[in-house]
């Protein structure tokens, strides 16, 4: 296994938003054949020598109602991961909710989701790494600002409502999981964005978007937002008490790794009238990640990237090289970066329309195609892991990520650490933890 303090990872896409006014569920695990080929998919991890997997149960098939769960598929898949000592980074909510919950405008969602997160942690107590809600900013934007998914609304008020519910759900889920697994670590995968002004008259709209891009992580980490964003939140339905909820629970950030997702589509040009379109990678992962690190001062992981294989067949390989060069640049400038992810293991379907259309288009983005044949980028990633896995320590061996392998869960050192973390919460954060648990129960 590569040095445990740098996490080479991939993912198995488990998006499941609804479109067509809730009539169509876009289930990527179904479209990509994972329900049928999950055993093969896990075997592919061995071939790549990958030990970290972004993965989660399909929420709409698992969470059947309040305190009602169907764990059959999860028992099989997570049981297999445990047997093979693969460390899952568990996505509990990936762009959608069960039909009975409705959508992200539902004010009961955060508390209900915290119960689901607790139930999962109790079912699988050996799981340590979590992304409770994946890409909170993108989920709220596509669902409630662009009108593409789920509630299919397109207004600032709907966006703020979705965002505050999504982030509150993430915060309460972290607290619930920590109550079960006190040494849990949260890898908060979030899209890292930047908006470039096309002309002087576009500076204002670009500045607004560059402030708004931080909102999900500002709230999640209890970072006080800028005055313009505070007014934006208040003008669009957030109350002072709701805002202070996030500030009150800022100590949870000490359990967090800031996951930055970066694609060629993450940078945008902005017109004077507010229209945006892709700019390509002008700054790149290095510069934009340092902007986020300077704001939150948390360890970093590159949690998503990919590229179409392309007509020449080497576009994805070249993009992998570029992203890895950016990771090394981030590391060499003193940012504590702890992992890298090519997302995902196999090709995806309908990513070319951001899952808002059900066309069945296969997008050649994976390390393997949907017949489970390795792509050129899969071979390149395998070579990269082999070359760098044993020679890329963290900036300090004293500051590595305290990952406990599934096979080590019951070892004395792991038990001692969990006991110590539990006492730490009870002793040093007793008042704070009480506030969190009251919010979960409320």
UniProtKB/TrEMBL annotation:
Gene3D superfamilies linked to this entry: Glycosidases
Pfam families noted in UniProt: Glyco_hydro_1
UniProt superkingdom: Bacteria
Listed InterPro entries: GH, Glyco_hydro_1
Protein name: Family 1 glycosylhydrolase
Organism of origin: Bosea massiliensis
């Amino acid at each position: 296994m590569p040095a445990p303090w740098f996490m080479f990872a991939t993912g198995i896409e488990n998006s499941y938003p609804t479109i067509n006014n809730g009539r169509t569920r876009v289930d990527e695990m179904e479209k990509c054949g994972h329900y049928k080929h999950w055993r093969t998919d896990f075997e592919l991890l061995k071939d790549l020598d990958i030990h970290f997997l972004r993965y989660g149960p399909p929420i709409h098939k698992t969470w059947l109602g309040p305190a009602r769960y169907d764990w059959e598929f999860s028992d099989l898949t997570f049981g297999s991961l445990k047997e093979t000592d693969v460390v899952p980074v568990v996505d509990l909510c990936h762009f959608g909710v069960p039909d009975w919950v409705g959508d992200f405008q539902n004010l009961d969602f955060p508390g209900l989701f915290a119960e689901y997160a607790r139930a999962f942690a109790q079912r699988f107590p050996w799981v340590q790494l979590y992304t409770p809600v994946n890409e909170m900013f993108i989920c709220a934007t596509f669902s409630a600002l662009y009108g593409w998914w789920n509630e299919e609304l397109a207004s600032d008020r709907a966006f703020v409502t979705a965002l505050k519910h999504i982030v509150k759900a993430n915060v309460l889920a972290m607290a619930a999981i920590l109550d079960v697994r006190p040494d849990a670590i949260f890898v908060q995968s979030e899209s890292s964005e930047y908006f470039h002004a096309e002309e002087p008259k576009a500076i204002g709209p670009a500045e607004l978007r560059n402030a708004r891009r931080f909102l999900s992580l500002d709230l999640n980490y209890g970072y006080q937002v800028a005055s313009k964003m505070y007014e934006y939140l208040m003008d669009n339905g957030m109350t002072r008490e709701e805002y202070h909820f996030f500030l009150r629970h800022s100590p949870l950030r000490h359990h967090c790794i800031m996951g930055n997702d970066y694609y060629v589509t993450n940078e945008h040009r902005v017109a004077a009238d507010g229209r945006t379109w892709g700019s390509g990678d002008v700054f790149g992962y290095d510069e934009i990640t340092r902007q986020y690190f300077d704001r939150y001062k948390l360890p970093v992981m590159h949690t998503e990237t990919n590229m179409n294989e392309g007509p020449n067949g080497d576009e994805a390989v070249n993009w992998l090289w570029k992203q890895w060069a950016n990771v090394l640049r981030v590391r060499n400038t003193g940012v504590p970066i702890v992992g890298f992810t090519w997302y995902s293991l196999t090709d995806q379907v309908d990513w070319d329309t951001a899952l808002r259309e059900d066309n069945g288009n296969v997008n050649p983005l994976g390390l393997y195609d949907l017949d489970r044949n390795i792509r050129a980028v899969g071979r390149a990633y395998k070579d990269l892991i082999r070359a760098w896995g044993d020679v890329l320590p963290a900036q300090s061996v004293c500051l590595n990520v305290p990952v406990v392998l599934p096979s080590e869960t019951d070892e004395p050192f792991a038990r001692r650490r969990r006991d110590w973390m539990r006492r730490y919460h009870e002793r040093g954060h007793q008042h704070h933890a009480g506030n969190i648990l009251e919010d979960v129960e409320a």
